[in-house]
Amino acid sequence: MSYRYRNRRDKPQVLEGRDISSLAKYIKSTGCKNVVLMLGAGVSTSAGIPDFRSPETGLYSNLARLNLPHPEAVFEISFFRKQPVPFYTLAHELYPGKFRPTITHSFIRLLAEKSLLHTCFTQNIDTLERRAGVPDDKIIEAHGSFAGQRCIECKQPYDDEKMKEHIFSMKIAKCEHCGGYVKPDIVFFGEELPEKFIRAIPNLRSADLLIIMGTSLTVYPFASLAQRVDESCPRVLINLDHVGDIGSRADDIVLLGKCDDVVKDLCVELGWEDELIKLWNETEDSVVSDKQKDSDPKPTTTDPEPTTRTSLDIKKPDALNEIEKQFSQLELDANDNPSRSRTDSTTGSKEKVATEDVPSVSPAESSTNKEKSTSKAPETESTSSQSSAAPIIETEVEERSTSVDNKL
């Protein structure tokens, strides 16, 4: 595989060169002890999770057919309070266990096993890092994930197995303490970033090497992490396209290509290829088998299976077709929850909020602002940072660099 490198006149100060062999040599040196990672949608592209933004085949494009006020409403906390069905429909198909970790995820585990991984910052909510065997204490999920869940009202945690039961049987989970709706710990519009993420940002000062993979570096404050490492810390971008300011420092390396392909080439240079493949083979059993899926509870009523498929159906990922079918089958296992929503991002109207509600961050009010700095809701980045396969969900968040700085 050939790579394109950003040309600089000045010589690297820490690395011997700006190529993959120089990177491998540095990783094996005594000077590289703390590797920090920044992960985006591109690391999970080959896992097969449907794209959110692609025309016609993207989830947002097709969710618009499901009588939502707008596609992004599925990830708005105010909408979820009134109608949790669309999100639970989506969660049923995207729930952890249905997708296998990628080669890149196994590389992250390998770094941990080599005692090189300091912190893994990820924007993705799929928990594939955990399923690949990366230690929990090394993972910082900047935009939350399916790893836990709690009541949106009293914030009480909810049992993992019970949540899984509800999602797989297509029923809405309700809090056993106050009766409020339960959702996974994914950052929605109108919610704050996890405190764990804010507290972990100073970890970047300890980095000997920063590897940025599969991200467009346009989602803030996550993208700002790339500037927080020391000037002497080598930065590596593994991505389909050159993004951000990577290449502006003397010890920056830009390796353009699919994440899995670049990672495999790097492991060949490191002499870790066999170990990488061994770890990835171990993830094969992490996927829910067809037999296991068949044993899951089924809805009491189902729509007849269509006898023919349109050309658009053929283009869609199977998961997307399943989501659309299941949306009409989903059972709402609860009465409507009393409305306690904050400022509505669609209409701008405000409703009365109970005093025990936690203050929220207002979503961006215009589509222009959303492109540069949006409130928090799971999305993918532009396809330029990913392969042609369907990308993993990635969360866009409101730009809060100033507030993040104030907390450090």
Strand line-up in the sheet with most strands: 3-2-1-6-7-8
Residue stretches low in confidence (pLDDT < 50, at least 5 long) are: 290-317, 330-407
Specify the number of helices: 15
Structural class: alpha/beta
Order of helical and strand elements: HEHHHHEHEEHEHEEEHHHHHHEEH
Report mean pLDDT, rounded to a whole number: 74
Straight-line N-to-C gap: 41 Å
Roughly how much helix do the residues carry, as a percent range? 25-40%
Principal-axes geometry comes out as elongated
CA radius of gyration is 22 Å
- Most strands sheet: 6 strands, parallel
Bin the strand percentage: 5-15%
The number of strands is 10
List the SSEs and their pairings.
Elements: H1 20-27, E1 35-39, H2 59-63, H3 77-82, H4 85-94, H5 103-113, E2 117-122, H6 128-131, E3 139-141, E4 144-151, H7 160-168, E5 182-186, H8 195-200, E6 209-213, E7 235-239, E8 252-256, H9 259-270, H10 273-281, H11 290-295, H12 311-315, H13 318-327, H14 367-372, E9 377-379, E10 394-396, H15 401-407
Parallel strand pairs: 1-2, 1-6, 2-3, 6-7, 7-8
Antiparallel strand pairs: 4-5, 9-10
Helix pairs in contact: 1-9, 4-13, 5-10
Catalytic activity: N(6)-acetyl-L-lysyl-[protein] + NAD(+) + H2O = 2''-O-acetyl-ADP-D-ribose + nicotinamide + L-lysyl-[protein]
Active site: 143 (proton acceptor)
Region (Disordered): 284-408
Overview of this protein structure:
The chain has helices at 20-27, 59-63, 77-82, 85-94, 103-113, 128-131, 160-168, 195-200, 259-270, 273-281, 290-295, 311-315, 318-327, 367-372, 401-407, and strands at 35-39, 117-122, 139-141, 144-151, 182-186, 209-213, 235-239, 252-256, 377-379, 394-396. By secondary structure, the protein is an alpha/beta fold. It has a 6-stranded parallel β-sheet with strand order 3-2-1-6-7-8. It is elongated, with a radius of gyration of 22 Å. Mean pLDDT is 74; it is low at 290-317 and 330-407.
